């Protein structure tokens, strides 16, 4: 038996793990790295059970070519060699591009490839490299609003200040549930211990959330309940109170900010007494929270996916940055700071006009290379100028994005779908080719994906625990081969092609090499923590090095914000709001076949309803419900959930596997695809970032 260092690549902590490999060369055990100086032995059940994915009998292990028509499910495939697959794929992709132009091709990349630092830059740029404007990413389902906000406010796409957990006396946490989802854009192990430490040193933690989350408790912080998708108004009210009560440092704000008056003008429309009804938080509490945040000796602020997925995630992240800025907590010890990491992620971006794409439902901007997710259903195989060739890189857009019904109609009409994945998932049922990707146990890598997210920066460099099994290949190699077939520059054109080439280049800039790192204990090198107080000197990238407190491009979104407030204020009583529910038993749709997650009562995703609503509707425990709105209808069972507010219902995404014939365990307990209820068509996405509207969605509930 040998023990090998590796790290999990499922979410941002990238937890260090020790794998045991037996004499036959098979990985047989995964354990947390108890000696690691940063993670100190933390890893969660998802990473530690990853051998279930590595060895899953449902894995795609060799290139597969479809043998039955695309409209027919289940799909039938035959194994082919990589050479055969690429010869045909290349010829068909080139034929589509040459006949219809590059916009007839499209690339979608999903979450797993975003955490593959070798392949991510290739995946994220392949669509643009092809010359297509019509590309998609999982980012528009979870976090595209944050880069959109920081670009406008700070002049960079890649600077997400993180809370100074180690030093703060106060943490205000919006839309997150770290016990279940860990921290987003923040690479922390032991997600609750930082909260216990804040309270342990006499500080305070307050969650603002639409439900009483599992993370809250005496030692971890209290929850203030908010009506779903109204955080932007609560933040505006905090700023309004901070301004009208003089709880900010005027000289600091005027020295380091511009467009400050426009900010105050905007938030003045949302005093606490006006916002109380819409947010469900009374004016006295709003004022008290404004005071406690603004007057704490130091205060950090954080916002997660629960806000990102609302209708105004970009404005919410803007106001979050403003709360930190005007109170002097941005770039301050105990506030929020740029965790610079081991290479400079953040750099200036030159404002450029966003390309516009015409959809059947109207024109939309391309933001950060992606169209809004619902556009895939409108364009794939449909309309007068359809997408004809779709490359799906480690993803399952059919279940991850709004518009399942439209995609099921359009995908069979594609001239070609190439799906690169570990599994034949619901989207793969429409593929012409499925190309078997290697998993992270089969991949050499450095933990570059965690750069600028780590409070304690460290670099870890690992070799593959085992070489790719069967005929699996790393996404890096597969995408590089696709580039070659499309006659695009490719790393494989060079004789010394190396998937670690990017890592080597980055490390050489800081005087390190992969070999040096691998020689260290836990194959990790600790780096100094970022300085907190250099924010305005070093990391505000606007030309005047000042924070843009009210970016001009936000004008239409600000008007929309006022309009939506009026809509919410006049909303009739009795409407249910559906929020997204993360649990420890799912991870988007990509671990849907994992036995450790898909078990017992957790195998399904019933609708969670407050007991008062169950009583009011007179529901019996085994009633099946029809949940519907203008966008779709799903049938589901329900469970009672006291963590909710009356009128708020919750459901997990990543389900709906009835036709996922390649995922036997997921298909046996398919659940319902909650994304079938998410808005599609004109006005359904957040225009500044193309984020989908996935939480706080109005639904009707009745017996099925
Ligand atoms: S917290 Fe994330 S990175 Fe760590 S083991 Fe769990 S899934 Fe993997």
From TrEMBL:
Q: Domain 4Fe-4S Mo/W bis-MGD-type: where?
A: 1-58
Q: What SMART domains does UniProt report for this protein, alphabetically? A: Molybdop_Fe4S4
Keywords, comma-separated and alphabetical: Iron, Iron-sulfur, Metal-binding
Q: Does the keyword Iron apply?
A: yes
**Gene Ontology MF term list:** iron-sulfur cluster binding; metal ion binding; molybdopterin cofactor binding; oxidoreductase activity
What family is reported?
A: Belongs to the prokaryotic molybdopterin-containing oxidoreductase family.
The protein's name: Formate dehydrogenase
Q: What is the lineage of its organism?
A: Bacteria, Pseudomonadati, Pseudomonadota, Alphaproteobacteria, Sphingomonadales
């Amino acid at each position: 038996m040998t023990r090998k260092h590796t790290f999990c690549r499922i979410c941002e902590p990238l937890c260090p793990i020790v794998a045991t490999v037996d004499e036959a060369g098979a990985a047989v055990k995964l354990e947390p790295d108890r000696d690691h100086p940063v993670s100190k032995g933390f890893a969660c059940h998802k990473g530690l059970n990853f051998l279930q994915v590595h060895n899953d009998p449902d894995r795609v292990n060799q290139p597969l070519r479809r043998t039955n028509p695309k409209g027919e499910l289940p799909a039938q495939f035959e194994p082919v060699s990589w050479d055969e697959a690429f010869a045909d794929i290349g010829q068909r992709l080139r034929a589509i591009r040459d006949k219809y132009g590059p916009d007839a091709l499209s690339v979608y990349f999903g979450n797993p490839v975003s955490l593959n630092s070798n392949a991510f830059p290739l995946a994220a740029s392949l669509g643009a490299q092809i010359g297509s404007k019509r590309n998609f990413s999982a980012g528009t389902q979870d976090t595209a609003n944050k880069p959109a906000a920081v670009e406008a406010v700070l002049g960079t796409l890649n600077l997400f200040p993180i809370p100074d957990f180690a030093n703060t006396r106060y943490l205000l946490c919006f839309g997150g549930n770290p016990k279940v989802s860990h921290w987003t854009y923040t690479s922390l192990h032991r997600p609750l211990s930082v909260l216990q430490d804040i309270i342990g040193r006499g500080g305070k933690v307050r969650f603002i959330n639409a439900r009483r989350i599992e993370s809250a408790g005496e030692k971890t912080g209290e929850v203030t309940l908010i009506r779903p998708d109204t955080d932007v108004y609560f933040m505006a009210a905090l700023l309004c109170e901070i301004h009208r009560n003089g709880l900010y440092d005027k000289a600091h704000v005027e020295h380091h900010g511009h467009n400050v008056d426009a900010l105050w003008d905007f938030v003045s429309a949302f005093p606490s007494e006006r916002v109380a009804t819409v947010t469900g938080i009374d004016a006295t509490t709003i004022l008290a929270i404004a005071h406690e945040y603004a007057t704490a000796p130091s205060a950090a602020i954080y916002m997660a996916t629960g806000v990102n997925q609302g209708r105004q995630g970009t404005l919410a992240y803007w106001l979050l940055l403003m709360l930190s800025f005007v109170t002097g907590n941005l770039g301050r010890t105990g506030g929020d700071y740029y965790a610079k990491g081991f290479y400079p992620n953040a750099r200036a971006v030159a404002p450029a006009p966003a390309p516009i794409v015409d959809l059947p439902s109207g024109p939309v901007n391309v933001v950060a290379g992606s169209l809004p997710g619902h556009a895939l259903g409108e364009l794939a195989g449909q309309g007068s100028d359809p997408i004809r060739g779709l490359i799906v890189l480690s993803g399952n857009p059919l279940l991850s994005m709004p518009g399942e019904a439209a995609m099921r109609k359009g995908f069979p009409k594609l001239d070609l779908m190439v799906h690169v994945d570990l599994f034949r998932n619901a989207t793969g049922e429409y593929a012409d080719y499925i190309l078997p990707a290697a998993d992270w146990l089969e991949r050499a890598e450095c933990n570059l994906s965690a750069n600028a997210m780590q409070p304690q920066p460290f670099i870890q460099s690992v070799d593959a625990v085992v070489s790719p099994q069967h005929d699996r290949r790393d996404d890096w190699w597969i995408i590089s081969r696709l580039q070659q077939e499309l006659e695009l520059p490719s790393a494989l054109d060079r004789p010394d092609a190396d998937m670690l080439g990017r890592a080597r280049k980055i490390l050489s800039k800081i005087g390190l090499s992969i070999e040096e790192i691998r020689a260290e204990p836990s194959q990790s090198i600790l780096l100094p923590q970022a300085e907190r107080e250099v924010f305005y000197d070093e990391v505000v990238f606007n030309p005047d090095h000042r924070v843009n407190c009210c970016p001009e491009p936000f004008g239409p979104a600000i008007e929309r914000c006022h309009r939506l407030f009026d809509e919410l204020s006049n909303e009739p009583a009795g409407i249910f709001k559906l929020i997204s529910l993360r649990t420890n038993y799912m991870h988007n749709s990509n671990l849907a076949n994992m036995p450790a997650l898909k078990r017992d009562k957790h195998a399904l995703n019933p609708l969670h309803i407050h007991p008062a609503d169950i009583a009011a509707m007179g529901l019996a425990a085994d009633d099946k419900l029809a949940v519907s709105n203008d966008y779709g209808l799903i049938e589901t069972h329900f469970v009672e959930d006291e963590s909710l507010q009356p009128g708020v219902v919750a459901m997990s995404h990543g389900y709906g596997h009835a036709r996922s014939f390649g995922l036997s365990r997921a298909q046996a307990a398919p659940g319902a695809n909650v994304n079938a209820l998410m808005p599609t068509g004109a006005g359904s996405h957040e225009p500044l970032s193309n984020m989908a509207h996935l939480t706080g969605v109005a639904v009707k509930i009745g017996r099925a």
